[in-house]
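During the no-cost extension, the postdoctoral fellow (Dr. R.K.) reprocessed legacy sequence entries with the updated structure-token encoder. One reprocessed record is reproduced below for audit purposes.
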Amino acid sequence: MSLPPGRALTVSQLTARVKAAVEGAPELRDVWVEGEISNYKHHPSGHRYFSLKDEGSVVRAVLFERAAREQAGAYGPLPAELGDGLRVLAHGYVGVFPRAGQYQLYVDALLPAGVGSLHQAFEQLKAKLQAEGLFAADRKRPLPFLPRRLGVVTSPSGAAVRDVIRVARRRFPGIRILVVPVLVQGPGAPEDIVRGLAWANRPELGLDVIILGRGGGSLEELWAFNDERVVRAVAASRVPVVAAVGHETDVTLVDFAADVRAPTPSAGAELAVPDVPALRSHVDRLTGRLAQALRRRVREDRRRLELLRARLPVRRPLPPIAHGRQALDDLRSRLQRAWALRLARGRERLSSAAGRLEALSPVAVLRRGYAVARRPDGRVLRRAGDATVGDRVEVILAEGGLDCEVRAIGAGLDPAPRVD
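Re-encoded structure tokens follow.
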């Protein structure tokens, strides 16, 4: 067969195409492989290289040092007896190592073989988080009665998101739904879910409740919801969280950390979103009962009023009112008399004080015949020696005054006025 010029692939090109085909296959991005370890090598860098084999095939595998460290938080520590001959359950994705031109399994979790190991890891992490109080009942918050905005953290392509939207809009046609797309299984799912929850908790979004969920699956497929990072993110959520993972029989650790656990995503929507049509019917029934109760109350009050009106002439409430008015008039008269007496006594005290004040007045002294002499500069003369012959002196009398000149000064004049 002749080969057209320029049509041959290089080895690198062929390997690149195989690598793209293998690593682009969704079913190879999230796999669990059971096999026996052989050719195990723990490199000084911390990476672990080995093969997984069974009766018919062998596949190379690598567990990088960082993935081994992260496994402790998600699945528990690596098996202590890790080495050749150990049968294990490995999780990871299939890729192609171009330099060797062969495919291999890139492992991010390595557990002893058997589902029992996953259950053991589940129970160990559950006990640890429970001891920290992350599952305590007093941490659970009630869901809002009428949420305006609903957040759904899940895969955008799964059946779960469609079920949640359908149920929520049927129950509450006006609710606003925000879908936060995340991976729900696979190596990057835990980090993606944590990021999605953090984004849904942003205050500017105004979410009232969050549904975190996915459809059913095996224990391995649901393992992202048992990851310690995801559980802590659910417990730390500012917005109440409804865990709606898997089917009714599926149990994950986020079920214990969430505020409410729903058996399915559809049930999660029913718990988070009220049935508005049913509420309207309930309100209509309550309105009718209230109107009926008010009518009954009005009838009873009217009947009671008629009975009181009929008994009014018998009890004669008017005489007590008249007696009260008479007592009021009597008090008014007594008050007026007391006020008049107090006013008269006050006037008498005022008149007496005025008389005493008048007796002490300088004008009254002048009226009795005394006079005040003062120099032109205004100084009052108290002794004859305060003036000299020739001084002009102003003499102030009770009525008017005199402008006098001093002709003589004597010491033996009689100071007392002569009384005729």
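The chain has a mean pLDDT of 85. The first helix runs from residue 11 to 23. The remaining legacy entries will be reprocessed before the final report is submitted.
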